[in-house]
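Supplementary notes (optional reading)

For those who missed the lab, this is the record we used. Protein: LisH domain-containing protein. Length: 57 residues.
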Amino acid sequence: MTSLQFGAARLSQKIMTQSQLEKDVANYVLAYLARQGYKNTMSKFCKSVTFFLLIQP
């Protein structure tokens, strides 16, 4: 295994950890909220979550 392959394997391990994924999602959501305007996005988000919960079996 070359050092490049080893580095790629380590990186994929780090990326796939749950906490890192959660951090990435949180950062994405925060950036999205900041871009869209907080209140407008929150109302849309609440509507979509409510809709999602309603269509669940």
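If you only remember one thing from this example: Residues 18-36 form the longest helix (19 residues).
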